[in-house]
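no rush on this but wanted to send it before i forget. theres a chain ive been looking at and ive put its sequence and its fold in token form underneath. i want to understand how the tokens follow from the sequence so walk me through it. thanks a lot i owe you, the record is right below:
>
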Amino acid sequence: MPAGERPIETPAIARQTRPDITLAVCRGACRLMRQSGRAVLRELPLPDGRRADIMAIAGSGELTIVEVKSSIEDWRVDQKWPDYLAWCDQLYFAVPVDFPQSLIPEAVGLIVADAYGGEILRHPARHPVTAARRKALLIDCARLASERLARLEDPEFVDFA
């Protein structure tokens, strides 16, 4: 490079890797859910073997799943999203600002998020979960959250059971 010339800088967002983008969108979507009064639990295993990126629980017990998609490729390889509808009252997709929003089906909610927060662009229809399923999911959420907190408080604990 000749003396005095500055290198061309790539915008910070373009330098982010897919895991960085996923983490940022997840953080922003979690912040948005908490701002709306919901408690959030990340990486929740569901009884059918799926895993919800974010489970958000309202004070009323309403269950919202937020699936995070960081790129078009991430969206295209993951066609299991209809399976999540059985486990929540509402389903949203959270995507980065530059994601082509037209890919997200109209039947689900749409959140645009970054590391600092998010915005709901479209609310989904509500499909109430049955009472028995809601109870089971709320118990699962409570147990997982409690176990995660206990591991933070006592990381050396070994369960020999």
Observations:
- The beta strands are 39-45, 51-57, 63-68, 90-95, 109-114, 117-122.
